[in-house]
Amino acid sequence: MSKDDNIFKRESPWGAPPGGSGDNDGGNGNGSGQRRQPPNIDDLIRKAQGSVGRIFPGGRSSGNKPIYIGLIVLVVLWALSGLYRVLPDEQGVVLRFGEYTKTTQPGLNYHIPFPVERVFTPKVTKVNRIDVGFRSASDSGRSSGVGDVSEESLMLTGDENIVDIDYSVFWVIKDAGKFLFNIQSPLETVKAASETAMREVIAKSKIQSILTEGRSKIEIEVQEITQGILDEYGSGIQVTQVQTQKADPPDQVIDAFRDVQAARADRERSKNEAEAYANDVIPRARGEAEKILQQAEAYKKEVVAKAEGEASRFLAIYTEYSKAKKVTQERMYLETMEKVLADIDKVIIDKNSGSGVVPYLPLPEIKKKTN
Hints:
The chain has four domains: 3-78, no CATH class; 81-120, no CATH class; 128-251, Tetrahydropterin Synthase, Chain A, CATH 3.30.479.30; 331-370, no CATH class. It has twelve helices and 13 strands. The protein has helices spanning 3-8, 41-55, 65-80, 137-140, 150-153, 176-181, 186-202, 207-211, 215-233, 254-323, 325-340, 363-370, and strands at 83-86, 92-96, 99-104, 107-110, 117-120, 128-132, 134-135, 147-148, 154-156, 162-173, 237-248, 347-349, 360-362. The strands form five sheets. Strands 6, 9, 10 and 11 form a four-stranded antiparallel β-sheet that branches. The radius of gyration is 58 Å and the shape is elongated. The termini are far apart.
């Protein structure tokens, strides 16, 4: 017999028949080609009963009782194998003959053991992450650095520019049953849905807004659109966050774009400086103008009031003068002389005294002596 014949040689699981050698040539070893006879089932049952009788006490007197006990033990163990525990961060998904039956919550639960029912316990609180537009070192198999995937990151904006945007999508399992059986490839589904949503939002936005203050709004809109797509699929996935990693012009034009941005920054700086100067000069000029106007108004009121006072005084004097002209004239003369002679050194000389005692009175000299 060759080596290849030994590979395909099969021996009976019941052993060689009585009186035979166990070869395929015959049952009695004489090479006559007689085939082996199948084993006797009754003999096998008696041998099994004898073996069980030697294991359990009681021997033949117990009859078939040990077999029944063994079967009961096996049934109990099989039934107990249906107990399973769902951890706090998991959900239990029960399948009956491969068909989804129910979802169980954390704790100790029971299901009909295999092969009737099977249980899957995916972690529903674990936050999963998908990177779009780039691959981290762990994903790309490199020791360090980040690899850019241009076919995912290059997108057309609403003002007909191209932006290179990288972002990450964070998601958790919301419904374990839908997650396991409604979608075939969850990772690819989330990635495709988020990329569709991002391209839709970028196509409606301007590049200046994308590169500056519009990122937070874009992230919120992408998250809402992605969640809507996944809900339509019945994926059982909840998108928790969309995080933009970078948003830049393509590498081919980034230097020119930075020059444009620098020019815009200089323009804004000059504009701000001009506005600051205007905000300083214009209020000051307005203040000076208001001051001049107020001074003119005050001078006007002063002149008018003084003129009105002089006119009232003149009218009052005229009224008194019309009543007694001589007395008024003398009074006016005395008041005028009082004002004129107030700061002049005075000497009184009485021209009518003749040889009087005091024809000459030097008042300033007398005042000095008195002091």
